[in-house]
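COMPLEX REQUEST
Ligand: nicotinamide-adenine-dinucleotide
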Amino acid sequence: MTGTTGMTGTAGMAGGKRHLLIGGEDIPARRYVPLYAPYSGERLADVAWADEAETDLAIRSATRAAAVMRRLPAHQRADILGRLVAALAERREEAARLIALEAAKPIAAARAEVERTIQTYRFAAEEARRICGETVPMDAAPGGEGRIGYTVREPLGVIGAITPFNFPMNLVAHKVGPALAAGNAVVLKPAEQTPLSAYFIGELLREAGLPPGALNIVSGDGRVVGERLVQDARVKMLTFTGSPAVGIGIRSRAGLKRVTLELGSNAALIVDGGVDADAVAARCAVGAFSYQGQVCISLQRIYAVEAVYDALVNGLVREAAAIKTGDPLDPEVGVSALISRSATERALAWIAEAVGEGAVVAAGGIVSADGVLLPTVLLNVPESASICRKEAFAPVVVVCQVRSVDEAIGRVNDSEYGLQAGIYTRDIGTALRAVEELQVGGVIVNDIPTYRVDHMPYGGVKNSGLGREGVKYATEDMTEQKLVVFNRGTL
Ligand code: NAD
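STATUS: Structure written out below.
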């Protein structure tokens, strides 16, 4: 394992090289690029950087495997996923360390991601046994007499999965789990910065007895590997999680392929009067600063009524100051480095822009000696500022005072995004009004918008996406409905 640290038992990593996974084999690539840890700058591995021909090989392999997968009985698909769950549970600490290293995810959060990944695959194993169609009452229409109608759900074939860096194991699980549960084969293109977590799962699935080629992993440039998946007619569905710019571009080029898009947001929370400001502030800190705010439903905007505003700001500033920053492998660290230096510079530029327009920095706003952007609380930010309107993807939260919950609802909705929103209120009527009026894919009452468990339907409206994940919903999306009608009449 020369040139690598902290990675043991990774079969496809001979000599610190991470090969492609195609057809169940570790396939050497023509080119490798070094992968560095975002926090320490340490070289973690040399990772295969696939070209078009290597991507083509993976699609060919998946096409062959799709024929095998569609004949694999549900109980066998469920058992394979079940064995993956057991293996991941066994190697959970190794998995967490891998995420912490390649994504600079604080180890506590990395462990939480592994636990959620286990849940996601467990749900997928269960879902594999539940896929079914329905009977159709044919005689409900004139001319339907004497016919028996029912539907079956068939796998689509080859699914192209493109994933982001921020949940490198669980967001892969949200695509690979449902795809295999439904009897498909997958070509997975992990994010450039976080391929190792994906390959780790690939190895566990191989050991779990997945038919060769049912999961192919092709690391490389999104514009080459990803684009090939988008253009290739053998790929029947694209499931993409990532930034809106890339996702919207994919959709526009995907033709008639099925496409699901899980994109970004500037998630907001409304805080009504009469709530426990300290308790809400503690949850807000979790929502805004977990994994440095690099979460699609990270809490970015808080709209608090006057009665609670001061106490909430004070509580949040206290919480921000109490977070230890630094090395992601330190179990006490809550905030580490952003994924890249350019991400840090962009966040700093947006903070400076807001300050230039009159914003006040109540906490953070600067980068520590070891390159970590400190948890930042901004007040008096004009709505037009980038840090409000765009997706911050950094440990930055904006707190605004509003005259009423109705004003807050309007300001939450004044966004190009709509993934999830939260509201704290003791008034049931106010909660129901917010549920009705908020333009988002999910409303969380009395908690932060960052709340997610892995079986709930999850996805956005507006520029936050198209379609829903959550294992049951993704599994259904990854099947085609086929209608069967039997004529009982004599031939
Ligand atoms: P990104 O869009 O830069 O990259 C995502 C993936 O797309 C990567 O694998 C990348 O290689 C690939 N890609 C890049 N260009 C491509 C192209 N032209 N064709 C095909 N694929 C291409 O996103 P990121 O920086 O890795 O992730 C952060 C973004 O993901 C944020 O916007 C965040 O909100 C979003 N996200 C959304 C969800 C959700 O469920 N809604 C979850 C996590 C992250």
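REMARKS: The longest strand covers residues 147-155. The pocket of nicotinamide-adenine-dinucleotide is lined by residues 162-167, 171, 189, 191-192, 222-223, 226-227, 230, 241-243, 246, 249-250, 262-264, 296, 391, 393, 419, 465 (CB under 6 Å).
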